[in-house]
Amino acid sequence: MYTLFDLFKGLSSLCRYLNPYNFNATTSGSSSGSAISAAANLATVTLGSETDGSILSPSSWNSVVGIKPTIGLTSRAGVVPISPRQDTVGPIARTVSDAAHVLDVIAGIDSNDLATIEASRYIPKGGYAQFLRPDGLRGKRIGIVRALFNFGGDASLTRTFEQHFNTLRKRGAVLVDNLEIAHFDEIYNGSSESIALAAEFKIYLNTYLKNLVVSPVRSLADVIAFNNKNSKLEKVKEYGQGLLLKSEATNGIGNAEKAALVNLAKLSKNGFEKLMTKKRLDAVVAPSARVSTLLAIAGSPGVVVPAGYTKDGEPFGISFGGLRGSEPKLIEIAYGFEQATKIRKPPSLKNFKI
Questions:
Q1: From the CA atom positions of the chain, what is the Rg in Å?
Q2: Residues 6+ apart with CB under 8 A from 35
Q3: Residues with Cβ < 8 Å from 237, sequence gap 6 or more?
Q4: How do residues 184-225 score in pLDDT, each as one tens digit?
Q5: Residue ranges of the alpha helices (H) in the chain?
Q6: If you ran DSSP here, which 8-state letter would residue 271 be given?
Q7: Alpha-carbon span 287 to 291, nearest angstrom
Q8: The dihedral of CA 220, 221, 226, 232: what is its sign?
């Protein structure tokens, strides 16, 4: 006989590893536990943290809604950091409505995170729920960067997103197609972001650990040593510690890191931000979470909504990204799309076994 505790313990264990729609599918991103819990109806809403894709990607792969807010719109105080320049906390839920209501609760000034003071100017009077408008797509200018829509010859996905484009048009959106972002390949394949994040992670994690009241580890070096000492438990052989070791090898923000940070700012300003401004766009649309890197280096918001399922039952989403502070427009767009399509279906849990 299983107790209620056994049931939730078993489901919790599954949630760490399994996509509730297809156990063989990826769960993606570091906030996958949050996305899976919402998808599997273990929670109405959850929170995720994102540096680059960790809200948008697992939300997409687990058929839920994820909102990645503008940097500083929500407090990061108490969250294990990678980079305050890119880290953000946002809601994950089964509907755009639930996610928007949670954003209303968590957005605002926190004296423990100074970035929230500046970003508070983006919070609309009356909050975000007021933008849950069924006609939210009407008049919105949405850009299509075709470089984001490379499906490797998968004709089914190509057809699906062309149908979604038609839905956006029918609901009153103006689609601006065949756009290009300057230095697109460098943004997605260059080394600047990884160079900057490696150094920032060590700096901010060390500060975070030192300020904890009680902790067996006080630095990144301590974490690495702990993992080595408990290698079987921490599965070091299976997963390694490559990123931790790379970060530990850095020595603050030196010339290489400064150059990387300058380059990231330039790539964003002359790429995504310039495109949005020049073409007077309200959002850029992308499959799944492919817009995440553009948003990450810009500190900009994004919303992902369920967009369909493959023949194997694997979910995928559609994401909309905008300039800093554009959450109201993105919520209008996401809600308008969600209400027009109502694609999400709950997973079948018949295969869950404790």
A1: 20
A2: 27, 28, 29, 46, 48, 58, 59, 61, 62, 64, 66, 92
A3: 231
A4: 999 999 999 999 999 999 999 999 999 999 999 999 999 999
A5: 4-15, 32-39, 56-61, 96-106, 115-119, 155-170, 184-189, 192-210, 220-229, 236-239, 242-248, 255-268, 274-278, 292-298, 327-341
A6: I
A7: 8
A8: positive
| C-beta separation of 302 from 99 below 8 A | no
Per-residue pLDDT reduced to its tens digit, 135-172 = 999 999 999 999 999 998 899 999 999 999 999 999 99
28: left (phi over 0), alpha (psi -120 to 50) or beta: left
Six token digits for residue 136: 């939210």
Bridge partner list, 45: 93
CA distance 302 to 70: 8
DSSP states of 230-266 as a string? TTTTTTHHHH--HHHHHHHT--SS-HHHHHHHHHHHH
- Report in angstroms the alpha-carbon separations of 47 from 26, 33, 115, 195, 315: 19, 10, 19, 27, 20
What's the residue count for the chain?
354
**Contact criterion met (CB below 8 Å) for 62 and 21:** yes
CB 118, CB 349: distance < 8 Å: no
Beta strand pairing call for 174-179 and 141-145: parallel
